[in-house]
Amino acid sequence: MTLEPIDYNGTPTLSFRQADEMNGFTKGTTFRLFKHSGDALQEGRDFFYFPASEYGEWIETLRAAGKVYRTSRHLVLLTREGYERLQSL
Questions:
Q1: pLDDT per position in the chain (89 positions), as tens?
Q2: In terms of DSSP bridges, do strands 11-15 and 47-50 run parallel, antiparallel, or are they unpaired?
Q3: According to the lineage, what is the superkingdom (predicted)?
Q4: Strand order in the sheet with 11-15
Q5: Can you tell me the distance from the alpha carbon of 16 to that of 20, in angstroms, rounded to the nearest whole number?
Q6: Which of 10, 26, 34, 74 is the 20 to 30 Å CA partner of 48?
Q7: What's the angle, vertex CA 69, arms to CA 66 and CA 71, rounded to 5?
C-alpha cells in the first residue's frame, strides 16, 4: 500500500486512519493507543491537534480524500517521531 502523508506546515504526518491501515489494524486501534499514551506524547512534537471549530473545512477535505475516517470530527495528526514513540509504548 502506498501511503501519502498529510503535509502540515512542511511536516509529514499521519492520521489515525492512515496509521490503522498501514499496520493492518481495525478502525480505532491507533486512537485507543493514542488515548492510553498519557504524557508520553507531546503536542507540537509528536502530534498536532485540530479542533473542528477552527479546522472543519480542512478536515472535510481530508475526509473526502479518504485520508481520515468519515466519522472524524476533530483531527489528530501524528508526526514521524510520535508514530515511532507510539509504536514503542
A1: 458 999 999 999 999 999 999 999 999 999 999 999 989 999 999 999 999 999 999 999 999 999 999 999 999 999 999 999 998 88
A2: unpaired
A3: Bacteria
A4: 6-8, 11-15, 75-79, 47-50
A5: 6
A6: 26
A7: 130
4 three-class SS: coil
Q: What is the secondary structure of 15-76 as a DSSP string? A: EHHHHHHHHTPPTTHHHHHHHTTGGGS-BTTTEEEE-HHHHHHHHHHHHHTTSS-TT--SEE
Cell of 28: 480505532
Residue reference for cell 504526518: 13
- CA 86 – CA 15 distance, rounded (Å): 13
Q: Grid coordinates representing 87? A: 509504536
Amino acid (1-letter code) at residue 63: R
